[in-house]
Amino acid sequence: MYTVQLIQLPLHPSTAWEPTGNIPLASALLAATAALPVESIFPEELLNTLGDTALLEELKRRDPELLGVTLYLWNRERTLHLLRSLRQWKPELLVVAGGPEVTPDNHTLLMESSIDLFVAGEGESFAADVLSPEKLRIILATGQKLLGPVVDTQPPDRWPDPYEKGYLAPHEGGSVHIETQRGCQCLCSYCAYRRTSPIPRMIPAETVLKKIRMLHDMGAEELVFLDPTFNSRLDMDKLLRGMSRFNLDCFAEVRSDLIHSSATADALAEAGFNSLEVGLQTMSTKVLHSVGRGGNPLSILKGAVLLKKSGITPIMDLILGLPGDDPGNIELAATELVSRELHEQVQTFCLSVLPGTELRANAKALGIRYEDRPPYTVTQSGPCSIQHLLQSRDRISDILGYDADPPPRPVLSDSFPGMEIFIPEKKQPLISPSVRHGVLRIKTSDPWAYRESILGKVRERREKDPYCPLDVVIQSEKLFPLDLIDMLNDFSEPECYTTEKAKIYQVPGLLRLAVIMPPATDLSWLMECSEMTLTVVRSHSTVSLPGGQVGLLLSGSHDLAQLSALYSQAPHLVFFAQKELEIIWNLDVLGLG
To answer: Does residue 294 carry a pLDDT above 70?
Structure first.
């Protein structure tokens, strides 16, 4: 039995090959602060790979007395599903929840009966008390349901370092999340930092460099800085000079309008930054100032150009639906990005009205309406409905030349960890893997004749892991009535971040269908099928795309550089039977992950 277990469930990326980026830094910080055993942190590998059922069974096996969960908007509903099941199994289990979702104004969450105590804001100050079963029972006896948030005035290095204390270790070739500051000088009304941590608290550059040296010596190869604005520190020059000695790949979010010279951009490149996230948001200076972000869009673009000239890829962010904004300003931003050749990687978001933000508190007065569950998407911003915003998003994609938020890409390769091959013609035991990202490959000569078996198999998988992605791939040798696609699409999905976002953008949610057909398949049938779901034909050689939205599944080895040029107009319609080629295509050509 484990006394305490701390869990942080991952985001589901749009492709199975993309890393989840789920490093349990929050769990490790709390465990180190409370001096818990290292085993109190639920293993990262299991968090990122186990399905709902397997995760539940593993927690039952560990049989904790107290469970701590970190809630983000993307893992909230799946975590609550897990907690409710655990409570049915063990009613006396103690549960503490923290993370960005826990705010005093998130009323629907605070009513959740499977959680005993919520801790808002930074949790280290409470860790020793709320992660001790005995002390937690004393707190609960007072009737408290919510603690915090407490505004801290000291840098985060006052707490034990989880890497130094052995709670976390870098994976070979993997990323390390590092925090060198808390708080933010920007006062964006759509960000909770404005309330919970309004004053930046920096770890001095020399201390950061000691931490980086330690991580480097432990085998870290990539640093992901969690700082709200990496380049807001006064001693940045000193930090960048020191970082240049370690030859690490680095990523952070910056204010590019603070980058005034090529020397600064060069220093960032020499420090190891190959890409940096830049929040342009809109071309309206008035709107930027009204939401507390400030800055000048032209200055932001100028700084981003300096980054690009230094060899750094700026990942540009745009937000649709900011109060007082006009979608035309975002479309203008996309045009400006193209004209300056800054459009290689652009992220376009519809505004999320997050709990704990000033925007949410003043939403009614600002003419803002929004969904009251993750991802809290704006449904009305002044005169603009969500339909107006989505139409603008489509125009932005046309300007950029690609979909800024592409649909999920199912696995069509011949192998994948946990892939289940289902042949309905054969009697197979109903024993399926429970994995976070499932792939069900259905191989049959006649899908329609075996439709009941296929539907039953899919139903079994969805019931086993309802909050996990499942790629259902029908590999058929003959045409079949497309009513089967409708039947599969009729499967209900739980309300959660992934499915709610999918409804808004009209893309597949957790159930992701695809059809693989022989090369000689009737083109009109293929075209009709491709209007309903992803449809590809098998090919051993590089041939022209069949037409419309019908894709290719290529077997054998290929020169990806040549293919990238050949299929430059529709790279998203090219798939590979060989897993290694598919991974490279996803990451290097499509930029997924």
So the answer is: yes
